[in-house]
Amino acid sequence: MLRHIRHFIIRHEPEAIDLAVSLKAGVGGLLGIGSAGGLAAATGMPFLLAPFGASAVLLFAQPQSPLAQPANTIGGYCVGLAAGLAVALVFPPVWWAAAIGVGAAIALMSLLRLTHPPAGAVPIVAVTTAMPPTTLVEAVLAGGVLLVAVAAIHHRIPPRQIYPKRAN
Known about the structure:
- Helices cover 67% and strands 0% of the residues.
- The chain is mostly helical and 168 residues long.
- Helix 4 packs parallel to helix 6 (122-128), helix 4 runs antiparallel to helix 7 (133-154) and helix 5 (95-112) packs antiparallel against helix 6.
- The longest helix is centred in the first third of the chain and has 25 residues, at 19-43.
């Protein structure tokens, strides 16, 4: 039994994480979410959506991950939006409709190779909030583009990281 448990507690991230890189990742998250919050305060639009916090982790702490690339981030949000809006239009705002939306978003993101895990939460937002569909579309797409833009600029500051990844 104990030898099976270790598979659940082993960390797979590299051991040699540079302090400057870790601090820079935190500052990136602050700047990305701060930009979204500032834009929300200035416009009255709901740009502070919970999935953006999770996106910030990927974009600023794991910028080389395929899941953090611009196509995956923005494409994943488009897929999550489509699934969420479709479910919200067809079903009542109940827990199982949110589950259907999340499942559909995961399947479509995987099929289209646009997987961005935080975007899987968009159908939950679509089903459980009273936000008008046009507002949700504007907030999710503008917020996703804003975070990618902040990440692209942020990773040019030392210690530099290549973002987005370059084609081979």
